[in-house]
Amino acid sequence: MYVGGEMVEEGQSVELAADETIVRGTMKWFDGVRGYGFMTPVTGDGQDVLVHFSVVRELGRRSLPEGCTVTCVVVQRERGRQARRIIDLDLGTAIGPDPETAAAKAADRVNPNAMLAAAGPMEPVAVKWFNRLKGYGFVVRDGDSADIFIHMETMRRAGVADPQPGQRLRVRVAPGHKGPLAVLAEIADSEA
Prior knowledge:
The protein is mainly β. It has two domains: 2-107, CATH 2.40.50.140; 112-191, CATH 2.40.50.140. The protein is built from three helices and twelve strands, in the order E-E-E-E-E-H-E-E-H-E-E-E-H-E-E. It has helices spanning 53-57, 99-108, 152-157; strands at 2-3, 6-7, 20-31, 36-41, 49-52, 69-77, 80-90, 123-131, 136-141, 148-151, 168-176, 179-187. A hairpin with a 7-residue loop joins strand 4 and strand 5. The model is unreliable at 1-11 (pLDDT under 50).
C-alpha cells in the first residue's frame, strides 16, 4: 500500500485529517495531456472523485489506465471530491491499455539498424517458424538448432511478405539482450 508515495505494510493505519475520507474506486478515465481524470467509487458512496496528476506523480507515474483500482484519501472541495493522495493502486484490474507500460516496452525494444555495426557477416539460415500476427519469428543456421530472433520489419525490408518454414534467407546476426537477433536479411540467391 502506498501513502504519500511511500510503501506502507498491510495492516498499518493511515492517519487522516478531519476533512479526509478513504475511498476505493475504479478509474473511469485519465487524460495525461490535461493532467487529471475521474475515479468512480466502488461502493456507490457519492460522486466521482477527481484524481489530479500531482497525486499520480507521487507514485512515479504520469497517468493511470482505465479500469485500474485506486484507493485514495479524498477531501470535499467546493467543486466536488478530490483525491489528496493515493494509498493503493491495482493495475491488474485495468481494462484499457497502460500508456506507461507500453512506453517502457517500447524503450526496451531494440532498433536493428543501430545494431548493424555489431552484426556478423551475411550467413545462410532457414525460417524455423514465423507468426505474422505477432510480428516475429525465428530462423536457424544450417546444422545449428539455436534460435535467432527475427522481427517482421526485418523481413519486410528483405522483401519477404509471408515467411514460410524452411524458406532460405541470408542474415546478419548481432547479439541482442535476449539472444541472437537477425538485424538484416535478404532472400537467398536460390530463391531470388
